Every structure is written in C-alpha cells, then in structure tokens.
Amino acid sequence: MKVEMLMTSELITVDRDASLKEAARRMIEAGISGLVVTDANGDLEGVITEADFVKAESDRRAVKRARLLRWFGQAEAGIPDSERKVGDVMTAEVVTLAVGSDHAEAARLMRRAGVKRIPIVDVNDRLVGIVSRSDIMRAFARPDSEVIAEILGHVMGDVLWIDPRLVEVRCVDGNVVLTGRLETRTDATLLESLTRRVDGVVSVASELNWAVDNTELQMVPPPPQFRGPNWP
Hints:
The protein is α/β, with parallel strands linked by helices. It has two domains: 3-139, CBS-domain (Roll); 144-212, Histidine-containing Protein, Chain: A (2-Layer Sandwich), CATH 3.30.1340.30. The chain contains seven helices and nine strands. It has helices spanning 20-30, 50-71, 86-89, 103-113, 133-139, 144-160, 185-196, and strands at 13-15, 34-38, 44-49, 97-98, 117-121, 127-132, 167-172, 175-184, 203-212. The strands form three sheets. It has a three-stranded mixed β-sheet with strand order 1-2-3. A hairpin with a 5-residue loop joins strand 5 and strand 6 (127-132). The two termini are 50 Å apart. The relative contact order is 0.12.
C-alpha cells in the first residue's frame, strides 16, 4: 500500500520561532505526540516530538541549578535568560519518504531510524503529509473481507488472469487459506506468492492443486529433418 493512502495530509504545523508552550498546546489539543516544523513557505525544517520536550525539560532543570550556583557566586556566564523556542530543541535532520513509497518501506525506515513518524514529500521535496506508526498499523489491520476482495479481484483477475471461480479464498484475522484446482503448477505457485504480499495478510496456507505440472516439462528434440547444422 502506498504511503499517500495512509498519510495524514491535513498537517498541524508549528513555526521554528514559536514558543515551546505553544507547540505543547497544539500537540495536546490535537492529541498527537509530534509536530512538523515549517517555514513561512511551508517548507519542512524539522520535527518536534515529546522526546524533544523531555530533553528540553531536562536542560531547563540543569539551568535552574546553574542559576542557583550563580546566585551563590559559584558560577557566572553561559546561562540563557530568554524563553526557549521550537527551533532550539527540534530535530532538524529529518528522514523523509517520497510519494509513491510503499508502507513496508516506511516501516523499515521507522525501525532503522528509531522514529515514530516520517514526513512525505513530493518530487520537488515539498511537504505533502506525514505517516505515523499508527498509520502503518492500519495497513496490517484490514478487514478480512477487503483482503479476500483484493486477492480475487486484483491478484487473480488483474495480475494472473485466473478465473476467481476456480479458487476459494478464506481469511480469518489475516490468515488466508487458498483452495481449488488451477491449470498449472506455476499458476498455483504465483498465486500463493502474490497473496503473501497483499496488505493485511499474516499467513498463507495453500491447498491448491493443478492439472499440469509445467515445472517438470522437458524439451522434446525436433525431428532430424528440422535440426540445423549446429544441432548437438
């Protein structure tokens, strides 16, 4: 499933010059754990997440201790007095994915980069949406009826050109069972293989059989009169 089918396109963003309090308010009101940071043109500048707030709070407590030491005359310079902004704590080096990427690619990137959300950009690197872990999970939580419909309609009908009436497809909680008789063993093998790639499929049990095992067919040499001069 393509990420644009899962992503959130109506983004809640924040400017890098906004206060941390404003960013926190937007996250709480929206019930989300992260915000995309954009500039005045809507270009991606970074993201700010709950983890960034935790780090900011840790730094703030360290500043308070330092101010106390300064009051006692044991520390002097290096203590910021102004309120911290989003740009001070956001993550600027953001991994992105292009429109057209597969949800499995997004899942691998999230795991590899250790992030919970990935901004989606178009061919001009313009921000068009964001996909989160919960969005990815929706691809694996499809109703069984949708899984069956895709196997019968798309995999068998559009890709393999197999009459859907030849196969019974059962699906319970993403566990698919294929039963029927096809023309060739290759058809059965391809159907099982492509079914495993359908979004929402957890496992596939094949009870398919076939009329012809075309994987064991042998080439029959032509009659002598049709053999060329280089025939072995």
